[in-house]
Records
---
Amino acid sequence: MAAEESESKNPTLKKELNLFGVFAVATGTTLSAGFFLLPGLAFQEAGPAVIVAYLVAAAMMVAPMLCKVELATAMPKAGGTYFFLDRSLGPIAGTIGGLGTWLALLLKASFALVGMGAYITLFFADAPIEGIAVALALLFG
């Protein structure tokens, strides 16, 4: 009985996210409209050199990716970038990093809506992309 009371006073989340779940969340937040929109724009500007550009960008992301993996393994706590920066550089750096991450996700969602608007204009040529993006934002909340 005492164990049940202590659990109700200090609720904790179960750590049930497996490798596939983490991969699904990371892929879902990474691949948005930019994945479908930007390669075409980049190819229009750079031509076949865009393949080399993507390979160079991927190579540059290996070191930060491995650092993030090590941090997540060493400090398995919720909070991500905020928690890592807070523990290593202090609360001000943690707050700035957390707000930066939040803004990046917010802007990524906005860019996804603009990308969806660009695709919808293929079917409705007279509709403005910005108006469609605003309508989609209102629709999806």
---
Amino acid sequence: MKSPSLSVKTNRLNVNGMTSALLRKAVLRQLSQLRHGQLVVIEDGERQVFGAREAHLLGEIQILDSAVWGLVAANGSIGAGEAFIHGYWSSPDLTAVVRVMVSNLDVLDAMEGGLARLARPFTQGLHWLNRNTRKGSQKNIAAHYDLGNDLFEEFLDPTMMYSAAQFLTTDDTLEQAQLNKLERICQKLALKPTDHLLEIGTGWGSMALYAAQHYGCKVTTTTLSKEQFAYTEKRIEALGLKDQVTLLLQDYRDLTGQYDKLVSIEMIEAVGHRFLPTYFKQCAHLLKSDGLMLLQAITIREQRFEQAKHSVDFIQRYIFPGGALPCVQNMLQIVSRDTDMNLLHMEDFGLHYARTLRLWHENFRRAHGRLAELGYDEYFLRLWEFYLCYCEGGFMERTIGTAQLLLAKPSAINPPLLGRFSA
């Protein structure tokens, strides 16, 4: 297997003779503005401490190559990620470093300005090319989800759920927490055997299979990933559910029919801001007049939404091309403006995602040797380590969250939210 080509050359700023020492000084000057948490920077035996003298949140960076300063100065947080991928710096606790920076958003924003602002047209141009038209969506989904099922099997739990789990007790394993999530979704939708459930975003099939097996309903599920399609097709056949579960390789915009219930788990991040009205209109159109929709979404804090909407971060640049995080307020505005659905219930469990990511990261690190044997090189492994820790830090500091929204069509009867009961 050929790992993705990772190059920072196209992003490297021509500094016209500015020395590494000057760039280092500029970056350290910005770090001197840290007020929350503490960050220790170690380079050539020299130890510098930034932030609060007494802090519970401690991060440590070890500089291994002075090239890190030019990348951070030129490309901000994207440059920091690129430098990590290339082994220019390391940390004994990468998530803690991310948390310190995220808890000082004013400093992080300043690092995205200055020289880094000059690289913005390049990254925004790449992101525009990755917009989620029908053709663009196929390409963007393939870029992440078609990396290879063997990759995801190495760090996901046996359910193969690639979304936030819900931990009901401190003893819950990752697998149990994912099953908790699936059960809670089914209960919120008040699924019953006579229902026809539509799923937008199949993943590796666990939601569709769980609903069919445990609630006896008919399920139609669609994906754009050829790898996920092939994997799920085998699971359906192995469980003898071909007559109950219909698997499609189709864009959500091309779906037809009428369904009793609709579920979409962390697929909306691949829709893009421009197409959110289209997405919600289509979901409402596909539901019967008494239908229910359960949406699980990674969300960004409302106060950061507009800024994030017009910028590109490390995840969009290297992990999820075309990706965009909505905020709850914006989604509800679109739902009320463009559909006949209304909100019945909402909950945020972002800290559960932080724990999910931590467990994925632990599995991923344990699988390094196996992944190397499968052909994933060191650049790719460091890229994914940065990705997992970057996300965990964001959820820990609540800059991003995970929301489940239960939406109802006009004639829907309010279902019991936390379990089944008899009227």
---
Amino acid sequence: MDSNTIGSIGVIGAGLMGHSIAMNFAVGGHEVVLIDTTDENLHKAMQDVSTTLGVLQEQGLVDETTAQSVPGRIRTSTSIEGAMDDVGFVVEAVFEDLDLKRRIFADLDRHCPPHAVLTSNTSSYMTSQLAPSTNRPDKVVVANWWNPAHLLPLVEVVRGPDTSDETIEITKSVLEGIGKRPVVLQKESLGFIGNRMQFALLREALSVVDKGIASAEDVDTVVKTGFGRRLAVAGPLEVFDIAGWDTISHIIDELYPDLDTSDENSPTITGMLERGDLGVKSGQGFYEWNDEAVAALRQRITHALATIDRFD
């Protein structure tokens, strides 16, 4: 079985990630069944699909014919039972609640065809925590999409102890067939790859602010106008291969002892939490936020990612 014979795609959860994942598969030519608990959620998801398709058209990433065909490839249902008979590949994309995910995987196991591969779009849990809820642990795997799923190609595929090689190959084939870049972790690791690296950067960024070395704005400026631009086209190991590991090793010897290794939250963040400064959701974090500022940032991100996508 490969991406051409997989059958329909099931997506469980029609929220921020779920609707975008469903749209990705539909743009790639797949028939999709999108499941959520209420018709209202599903109606909003289909509105979000139309809105996102409009953005992709504006950015030149899909043509009008494709955009018009996508909604017709997505059918919706409020029940897994009876909706998954022809599904060969499933993405669970509900919020991060382990008990809920386990119940969903048990339901999927009962109602999906025996050959169907069951994946979870989770950044918090391991394949080994979900697979025992099914009678097909060899066909269960984490496939962690990155947000926004319609613009970021990365999907981290995390093999569990019982995941078969065939499941990994099917998952890679299905994802590559819609233009994604799956990276397979050969064993489970908390945070996978991306979040381990992202939070290592966050810890050092907060340390710089905590120590009064620079402001939050200046820390962000260093990333946005410096090495962050380079990271979109060359990873850190590529860059340092160019620099030479003899040179980099001297810097490591000097710099590593001075880097933050704390396993506790930043004092700056602790103070913000005490004040109720939660970021966008409260209107104040390191920056002041209102609807216009949030929309402007999202537009900048979308435009930049779309530009990279066109030339990737």
---
Amino acid sequence: MSFAEQVKNEIAHCKPENAACRYAELAALLCMGGSLMLGSRGHVGIEFSTSNNAVARKALKMWMESFAVRPEVRVRQGLRLRKKNYYILRVPPSFASTKTLQQLSLFPKDKEFSAIDLKNPACQRAFLRGAFMGGGSVNQPKGDYHLELLTGNESFAQKLLKIMCRFHLPAKMTDRKGDYLVYIKEGNGVSAFLQLIGADQAYMKFESVRIVKEMRNNVNRVVNCETANLQKTVDAAIRQRRDIEKLQASGLYLRLTPKLQEAAELRMSHPEASMSELATLSGLTKSGLAHRFRKISDMAKQIEE
């Protein structure tokens, strides 16, 4: 199973925070992986297909929780050896389906998605999660850092880019043979995106592999480290970065004292460094620096509560 499929399987089990976030996630998922069907009297339906069983179940669940119109569900089996099955959700054109698609800003075309709440950061995260489930991919952490969202809808791609930039992600957009690609090529950006959409396990795996890989590029500093100590350093660095990114995403980062912000910026600038190395860089004692990171961790735990 590819790393991208692992991410999709994980986020397919994320529960939207509320009905508004469910609408946002479903709208992005259908916009990315669905196609509109025109019927008589100007009525419109939609057909969504995916090869990921968990994503198909998530799409069906969100639809059933939101609307009275019931979709048809079919499975198209792969024709050749190792070909994946495709799971198809189809809502035939009708007066009711047209009204439903209007509620999701999918018809008529609305580049601002004004019918759903995209001012709420939680709904913005849900929107990005739906887009990734519908048509996202990310490289294995051992390879080159690359995450992308591919769509044939230019205004939708621009909306994704706008939201990603609101979260300070280093995203860019380009066209590819008539399609539009929103992508991230930096390790920090890929890592932040995974955490943003709720892929915590994938985030931890990505960060663990990435930090070890970067450490191996500095062999002179780690050659005498025992494996257990190296992993301990990696785990501590991941936890600290995760706490800092949680505070940044929630807006609580600005409430940190200057001393805590100094420690946070030092960790983000040196993701692979040990506590001893950070202490040397900061001029603080190792215990003093550890005390600051404990305070940062305590604030991050308040978000979870």
